[in-house]
């Protein structure tokens, strides 16, 4: 009897400890993001007062209003959107059928080609950037949206192939086979049978492409012109400006993290699936 | 001849004609946009090719760029720096990632909520992450030196500027951003563990620590390997965080090979040499990715 209560007390204590530890982990990982968001809501004079004002400060949306009235900021946002939508659509268009083909093909060569895309995914961007920059320079595409879109698509599409191959492998092929017996072509079976069953996988792939392209800095740094600069480059420019305004920089950074926040909080199921399936499934 | 080609074509496709054509557009795209530049890069690594030259002549110099790299103290140093960075980040991320995965593995509402928040760091633009941490580390108005001072430690000129501290400071940024990815990989691994060995262990009177050490860890070995290789390869690619925080400094203390290639190619415009260095990096990452592929393939069996 007594042993039972001691055990229960120990269990309770353990539960409280683990809960406290979980909350500590949560706080430690959220501090930089919390700092960024609160800085974007502060007046310039409050942004860097010490001791730091974590909770009680004059909140204002002034920084966001100033940024949204700035034509340059709007241009950065527009460019980021164009490049992200472009690379994501192109990657899905090329990658989804390819992933399906690899998952369903019987020939060893086609099956093995998925590893080629996996290895491509691991290529350090700098190693690709140097020759790509020279080639784009020679054909005069530097500064166009296309230069960034196609280079991002190499990496995005490689991920999509890998991800969709794993996904289609888990989709039962009996229904497609039935359609084939009924005289449908392989393309029809893909478009009308397999594709509708794989929407969650496509969403996961799309989210990865959106995040990867939206966050890209290096390719945009080397391949854009002042007219096609994306949000990260805008943030960097305002960071190195002489009259740097921390509040406005933070506001611009908040625009840059919107996709990450939306995806983590509302579409996390798909995002986790993409990350773990892409990483761990053979 | 023509007939033989047709036979080869048929055998090659093994009845996969339609599938081949679904793959074909991407293959062409990748051949033009990725494979061709990589071959091009391989080619110019044997040339002296500087964009700062008024005529931009390419002179064939054989292996000179590669030989030069072997005697270049900055390159040798950057390879060492890379190994320190990769070793430091990956080790810490795996230990912390596993610990946090075990902490948050329960299917409670709180664990679920915290897990979705933990997705955020790795989805953020690495450049923004770097700049935020740069502000947090700033010695005049940053939060971190302020609290360090309260603890009675002199922050000097700030973590990103002080020699010997800059590297750990940059590693911490990477650990903050990528530990959650390792956590999610381990969570997936933990979920797929069979329950029978644990039941048997309880029957045998094993403690929870014992069953963790003798059952969980061995069963997680494949997950370990995947996490280790994946993060190692990603860690070799680090660029944005270094660019945003230290720009390779102080001195060359945080100049990883990836960043050195960027400097040689995109700021000194010494393209032949940069291409040679890039090929060395590709070779290292290439070996790792082949091992990774082999590990994944074995797991499938």
Describe the structure.
The complex is a heterodimer of chains A (282) and B (301). Chain A is mainly alpha-helical and 282 residues long. Chain A folds into 2 domains: 2-40; 66-280, MetI-like (MetI-like fold, Orthogonal Bundle). Helix content of chain A is 79%, strand content 0%. Chain A has 13 helices and no strands. Chain A has helices spanning 2-40, 62-69, 71-104, 108-122, 125-138, 145-170, 174-181, 186-197, 199-215, 218-223, 231-240, 246-266, 268-280. In chain A, α9 (199-215) packs antiparallel against α12. The radius of gyration of chain A is 24 Å and the shape is flat. In chain B, α8 runs antiparallel to α11. Chain B is flat. Helices cover 74% and strands 2% of the residues of chain B. The longest helix of chain B has 31 residues, at 73-103. Chain B has helices at residues 2-13, 17-44, 64-70, 73-103, 109-123, 126-137, 143-150, 166-191, 196-203, 208-219, 221-236, 240-245, 257-267, 271-300; strands at residues 47-49, 58-60. Chain B is mainly α and 301 residues long. Chain B folds into 2 domains: 2-36, no CATH class; 73-300, MetI-like fold (Orthogonal Bundle), CATH 1.10.3720. In chain B, strands 1-2 form a two-stranded antiparallel sheet. Chains A and B meet through α1, α3, α4, α5 and α6 of A and α2, α5, α6, α8 and α11 of B.
How are the SSEs ordered, and which strands pair?
The complex is a heterodimer of chains A (282) and B (301).
Chain A: H1 2-40, H2 62-69, H3 71-104, H4 108-122, H5 125-138, H6 145-170, H7 174-181, H8 186-197, H9 199-215, H10 218-223, H11 231-240, H12 246-266, H13 268-280
Chain B: H1 2-13, H2 17-44, E1 47-49, E2 58-60, H3 64-70, H4 73-103, H5 109-123, H6 126-137, H7 143-150, H8 166-191, H9 196-203, H10 208-219, H11 221-236, H12 240-245, H13 257-267, H14 271-300
Antiparallel strand pairs in B: 1-2
């Amino acid at each position: 009897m007594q042993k039972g209560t001691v055990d229960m007390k120990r269990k309770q204590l353990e539960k409280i400890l683990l809960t406290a530890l979980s909350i500590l982990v949560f706080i430690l990982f959220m501090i930089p993001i919390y700092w960024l968001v609160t800085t974007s809501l502060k007046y310039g004079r409050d942004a860097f007062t010490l001791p730091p004002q974590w909770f009680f400060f004059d909140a204002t949306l002034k920084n966001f209003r100033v940024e949204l009235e700035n034509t340059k900021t709007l241009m950065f946002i527009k460019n980021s959107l164009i490049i992200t939508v472009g690379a994501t659509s192109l990657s899905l268009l090329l990658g989804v059928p390819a992933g399906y083909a690899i998952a369903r093909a019987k020939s060893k060569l086609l099956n093995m080609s998925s590893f080629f895309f996996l290895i491509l995914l691991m290529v350090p961007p700098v190693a690709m950037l140097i020759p790509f920059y020279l080639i784009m320079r020679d054909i005069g595409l530097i500064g166009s949206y296309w230069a960034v879109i196609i280079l991002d698509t190499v990496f995005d599409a490689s991920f999509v192939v890998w991800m969709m191959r794993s996904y289609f492998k888990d989709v039962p092929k009996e229904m497609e086979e039935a359609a084939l017996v009924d005289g449908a072509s392989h393309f029809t079976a893909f478009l009308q049978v397999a594709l509708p069953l794989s929407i969650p996988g496509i969403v996961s792939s799309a989210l990865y492409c959106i995040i990867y392209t939206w966050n890209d800095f290096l390719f945009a740094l080397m391949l854009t012109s002042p007219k096609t600069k994306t949000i990260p480059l805008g943030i960097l420019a305002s960071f190195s400006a002489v009259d740097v305004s921390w509040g406005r920089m933070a506001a611009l950074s908040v625009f840059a993290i919107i996709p990450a926040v939306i995806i983590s909080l509302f579409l996390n199921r798909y995002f986790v699936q993409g990350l773990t399936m892409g990483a761990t499934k053979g | 001849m023509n007939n033989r080609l047709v036979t080869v074509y048929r055998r090659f496709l093994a009845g996969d004609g339609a599938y081949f054509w679904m793959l074909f557009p991407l293959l062409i795209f990748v051949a033009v946009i990725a494979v061709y530049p990589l071959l091009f890069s391989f080619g110019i690594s044997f040339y002296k090719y500087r964009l700062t030259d008024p005529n931009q002549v390419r002179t064939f110099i054989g292996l000179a760029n590669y030989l030069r790299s072997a005697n270049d103290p900055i390159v040798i140093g950057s390879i060492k720096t890379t190994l320190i960075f990769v070793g430091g980040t990956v080790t810490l991320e795996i230990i912390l990632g596993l610990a946090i995965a075990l902490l948050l593995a329960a299917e409670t509402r709180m664990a679920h909520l915290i897990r979705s928040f933990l997705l955020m760091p790795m989805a953020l633009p690495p450049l923004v992450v770097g700049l935020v941490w740069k502000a947090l580390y700033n010695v005049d108005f940053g939060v971190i030196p302020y609290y360090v001072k309260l603890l009675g430690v002199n922050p000097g000129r700030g973590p990103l500027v002080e020699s010997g501290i800059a590297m750990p400071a940059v590693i911490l940024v990477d650990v903050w951003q990528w530990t959650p990815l390792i956590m999610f990989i381990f969570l997936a691994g933990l979920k797929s563990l069979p329950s029978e060995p644990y039941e048997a262990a309880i029957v045998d009177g094993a403690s929870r620590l014992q069953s963790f050490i003798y059952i969980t860890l061995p069963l997680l070995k494949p997950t370990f390997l995947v996490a280790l290789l994946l993060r190692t390869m990603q860690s070799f690619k680090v660029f944005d965080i270094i660019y945003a925080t230290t720009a390779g400094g102080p001195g060359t203390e945080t100049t990883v090979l990836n960043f050195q290639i960027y400097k040689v190619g995109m700021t000194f415009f010494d393209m032949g040499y940069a291409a040679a260095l890039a090929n060395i990096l590709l070779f290292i990452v290439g070996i790792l990715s082949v091992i990774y592929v082999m590990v994944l393939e074995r797991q499938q069996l």
